[in-house]
From TrEMBL:
Gene3D superfamilies: Homeodomain-like
Name of protein: Mor transcription activator domain-containing protein
Taxonomic placement: Bacteria, Bacillati, Bacillota, Clostridia, Eubacteriales
NCBIfam families per record: CD3324_fam
Alphabetical list of Pfam families matching this protein: Mor
Domain Mor transcription activator: 14-87
Length: 91
């Protein structure tokens, strides 16, 4: 998200109205419901993590320890266990 100067996009009357409630500062204007996107929809992050988690589960199933997986993927052992538990649910 990038910031825009209000005076560059809003009519002067609207700026004055907003200033009655907040004179200076930042305001977040949320997206309309129909324009909202789910997390990871704009990038490949969601698919990358899904593939990584599947890989972790497969290595665990092949006998690699939680400790070794945590070191390999730079995650805590608790995170590795959570990933394994979640993958078992989806299988």
């Amino acid at each position: 998200m990038k910031y825009e100067k209000a005076q560059n996009i809003l009519p002067h009357g609207i700026i004055e109205l907003i200033q009655k409630y907040m004179d200076g500062g930042y305001i977040y204007i949320p997206r309309k419901d129909e324009n909202k996107r789910s997390w990871g929809e704009n990038t490949e992050t969601k698919s990358y993590l899904k593939e990584r988690d599947r890989e972790i589960f497969n290595k665990y199933s092949a006998g690699i320890s939680v400790k070794c997986l945590a070191e390999e993927y730079f995650l805590t052992e608790g995170s590795i266990r959570r990933i394994i538990r979640n993958q078992k649910i989806y299988d």
